[in-house]
Amino acid sequence: MEKDIKNEELEAMAEEDMEESIVVLTDDEGNESYFIEEMVIPVGDKNFAILVGISADCCEDEECHCHHDHDHEDEDENVVIARIDFDEDGEPVYVGPTDEEFEAVKVAYEKYWEEEE
């Protein structure tokens, strides 16, 4: 019976990993923008999120099952690179990377897609 419980836990963890993370970023004027965390790229000892913009009315429903397939050649996409830090409660906080971090993540992202092709 113990084996069944472990299998169920593994299946639940796999399902959680497949869920898309919706990230809300707020600009200096209080305007909210919605993004899907497409992937996380580790660079050095930090993690960086590739965030792809979505419309505000997408995924309003908690039971939304839409899939966000993104064409990486679409120049109109709103794509943001953000460093993932954590607040005192351990919650992720998305912050703008330094210029050096941005360039390092950009190189790692391009290398990833070259290897995928």
Structural domains: how many = 1
**Fraction in beta strands:** 25-35%
**How would you describe the oligomerization state of the chains in this entry?**
single chain
- Biggest sheet record: 5 strands, antiparallel
Radius of gyration: 17 Å
The gross shape turns out to be globular
Helix coverage percent of residues? 25-40%
Mean pLDDT: 77
Biggest sheet strand order reads 1-2-3-4-5
The end-to-end distance, rounded to whole angstroms, is 43 Å
Order of SSEs, N→C?
HEEEEEH
| Uncertain segments | 1-6, 13-18, 67-74
Briefly note the structural class of the backbone.
alpha+beta
Find the count of extended strands (DSSP E, 2+ residues). Answer: 5
Number of helices in the DSSP assignment: 2
Summarize the helices and strands and which ones pair or pack.
Layout: H1 2-18, E1 22-26, E2 32-43, E3 46-54, E4 79-86, E5 92-95, H2 99-116
Antiparallel strand pairs: 1-2, 2-3, 3-4, 4-5
